[in-house]
Write a structure and sequence with these properties.
The chain is of the alpha/beta class. The chain has helices at 11-22, 74-89, 105-108, 113-133, 154-157, 160-168, 178-191, and strands at 2-6, 26-31, 42-46, 62-65, 97-101, 139-145, 199-202. β1, α1 (11-22) and β2 (26-31) form a beta-alpha-beta unit.
């Protein structure tokens, strides 16, 4: 299938690109950084998704919005640009599935203020998109990870005291690898044909950690 993926040069996006390429799909990546994936079925477009001049790409079958930032114009990049990309490429007759990479922070509010707001907006927009994508027989969901071991999170991963505190809040006592999130992305867009309008948290149980304390 023809897959359009934003944020394809690093972290989760790069892992998603590799997963789809390994399964034989055609992948077109859009990223403001240079290409980090090289394969016969991969085409790279170096472009900031905030650009008013997005490339013309027709007949996209799977759209995955993975481009994002943390504490850097979060609402413009994580939400407004995501909406522009989806409206341009996602809602058309060839579309089969749309996936937004959100964040568990959009549910919990536990992050930088604009980051939480941007990801909370993705949750609402996912439902709006799902209603309209259904006219084409397509699904739309958001995949909302908690901690993922990417370069973006290096400041806390490499600080032992902070890392210990984070692990205390995560029941599974680890963060996800980018490849794990890529498997979820593949399932929700290729395997799944009926789940739509949902925002799925994949966070090792952090969001359900009530930390109930009582006398012994």
């Amino acid at each position: 299938m023809k897959v359009l993926l934003t944020g394809s040069s690093g972290g989760i996006g790069q892992a998603v690109a590799r997963r789809f390429l390994a399964a034989g799909h055609q992948v077109i990546g859009i990223d403001r950084e240079a290409a980090a994936v090289f394969a016969p079925n991969y085409t790279h477009i170096q472009r900031d998704i905030r650009s008013p001049e997005l490339p013309e790409i027709t007949d996209v079958e799977i759209l995955i919005n993975c481009a994002g930032t943390q504490n850097e114009d979060d609402i413009d990049i994580n939400l407004k640009a995501l909406i522009r990309v989806t409206e341009k490429y996602g809602l058309q007759p060839a579309i089969r599935s749309i996936l937004h990479i959100g964040s568990a922070s959009g549910h919990t509010g536990s992050e930088f203020p604009e980051y939480c707001a941007s990801k909370g907006g993705v949750i609402a927009y996912t439902k709006n998109t799902a209603l309209r994508a259904a006219a084409f027989g397509a699904t739309c969901n958001s995949l909302d990870p908690g901690g993922v071991r990417t370069e973006l999170n290096a400041p806390v991963m490499n600080e032992p005291t902070l890392w210990a505190k984070i692990m205390d809040e995560t029941p599974l006592r680890r963060w996800a690898e980018p490849e794990e999130i890529a498997e979820w992305a593949f399932f929700l867009t290729v395997v799944n044909r009926f789940c739509t309008g949902q925002s799925i948290i994949v966070d090792g149980g952090e969001a359900i950690n009530s930390r109930f304390i009582w006398t012994e």
